[in-house]
Design goal:
The complex is a heterodimer of chains A (253) and B (133). By secondary structure, chain A is mainly alpha-helical. Helices cover 78% and strands 0% of the residues of chain A. Chain A has two domains: 78 residues, no CATH class; 154 residues, no CATH class. Helix content of chain B is 75%, strand content 0%. In chain B, helix 1 packs antiparallel against helix 2 and helix 1 packs across helix 3. The chains are: A mainly alpha (253), B mainly alpha (133). The interface between A and B is large, with 122 and 87 residues.
């Protein structure tokens, strides 16, 4: 047994290919037999991945889901930011620049609206739960934007570590739910063309959520959604500790 | 040569990331601002020009298409490495904040997608495209 584990650990990335391959095979079969193809195999595979991530996280107490289990550590490299962004950029090959230009205005509006809406909703929920100081409201609002904007904002304005942890959890919930729910809500919000995908990316902003959600909906939409989502975290980190925080101080400070 | 495609893709991504990081420094945030987006635009423009001059032949193209095809498996690997345990452990306030932001933003998609005229839905996927997915 030791030899097997040793080989798998030393060749982590290769084992990750095998694991994901098996997961996709199983998901494709489940998609055909259980849902008669109505829910795409990739959507099921992403959900199974999240379940495995939960199990891995509970088992090890780590932060990287299943990748914290030694023999599955290769998943961390395969699904890490470097290869993820590399593959996202590759999906843009052959994209029509005209489509992007056409959706440019909508994309910019979506970005700003997405950040403002997340901040406001997050801050309102924080206040409803009794976190009424501007630091906590701003931090949790920023966390509702993405799980990176939350801690960046919280650290900059001096929020408590408990509130920062909550802001990360809020952003993680959003990312996970966007991955799972995008294919389910897509028909209701007209998410079936490049322009609505760019609006969606800008409004949601979580790169991992949008990347996973659009993959499970229609892979051809990925480059458009990723295009706007990639500006979201940077813009959020800019606005969170400045404009948004000062607005809250002015209103409630 | 397949590697030319992979190398071109990697170069576009690195330049995009540099622009994104530079933009971050410029506006004073510790984050990459739009790196992936710049990389994508760079890839589209550069490959389009090379193709027109006949400098981006099929084998080179394969180097890019391979990584594009690996996108979904990579996203599945990404899903399996998310911190789901902490997300669920955050309690009701974190969940409501995250879900509320999601619901409010989703409701705005049809409104904002209307800016600049309605768009046609993409045609249904062909069998070949389905096979790929």
């Amino acid at each position: 047994m030791d030899i097997v584990a040793d080989v798998l650990e030393r060749n982590g990335l290769l084992f990750a290919f095998v694991v994901v391959g098996a997961l996709m095979l199983l998901s494709g079969w489940l998609s055909k037999t259980l849902t008669r193809g109505r829910l795409q195999g990739s959507a099921i595979a992403i959900m199974l991945g999240l379940v495995l991530a939960y199990i891995g996280g509970v088992q090890t107490g780590g932060e990287a889901g299943l990748a914290d289990v030694a023999i599955f550590s290769g998943l961390g490299l395969m699904g890490g930011a470097m290869l993820r962004d590399f593959a996202i950029v590759a999906t843009a090959y052959g994209v029509d620049l005209q489509e992007i230009k056409k959706a440019g205005a909508a994309g910019v509006v979506a970005l700003i609206a997405g950040i403002v809406v997340s901040f406001v909703v997050g801050a309102a929920v924080a206040a409803a739960f009794g976190y009424t100081d501007p630091e906590s409201m701003a931090t949790i609002g920023a966390g509702a934007a993405t799980y990176i904007v939350g801690p960046v904002t919280g650290t900059a304005i001096g929020a408590s570590s408990e509130v920062i942890a909550l802001s990360v959890a809020a952003g993680l919930i959003k990312a996970v739910v966007v991955m799972v729910c995008t294919p389910l809500i897509a028909p209701f919000i007209g998410l079936n063309n490049p322009k609505s995908a760019m609006a969606y990316g800008g409004l949601m902003g979580t790169t991992s959520g949008v990347a996973g959600g659009l993959a499970a909906t229609d892979k051809r939409l990925v480059p458009y959604g990723a295009m706007t989502a990639t500006f979201y975290t940077g813009l959020g980190c800019l606005l969170g500790p400045s404009v948004f925080y000062f607005a809250l101080v002015g209103l409630f400070g | 040569m397949v590697l030319y495609g992979v190398a071109a893709l990697a170069l576009c991504m690195l330049i995009g990331m540099l622009i994104g990081d530079g933009l971050g420094v410029l506006v004073g945030v510790d984050a990459n601002v739009g790196g992936v987006g710049f990389a994508m635009i760079l890839l589209v423009v550069a490959t389009d020009r090379l193709r027109k001059r006949g400098l981006f032949p099929k084998p080179t193209e394969q180097g890019v298409l391979f990584w594009s095809a690996l996108y979904i498996p990579i996203v599945i690997a990404m899903a399996s490495t998310q911190n789901v345990a902490e997300a669920i452990g955050g309690g009701p306030m974190a969940a409501i904040a995250g879900l509320g932001a999601l619901a409010a933003a989703a409701a705005l998609v049809p409104v904002i997608a209307r800016i600049g005229g309605q768009s046609e839905p993409l045609p249904p996927m062909t069998e070949a495209e389905k096979q790929e997915a």
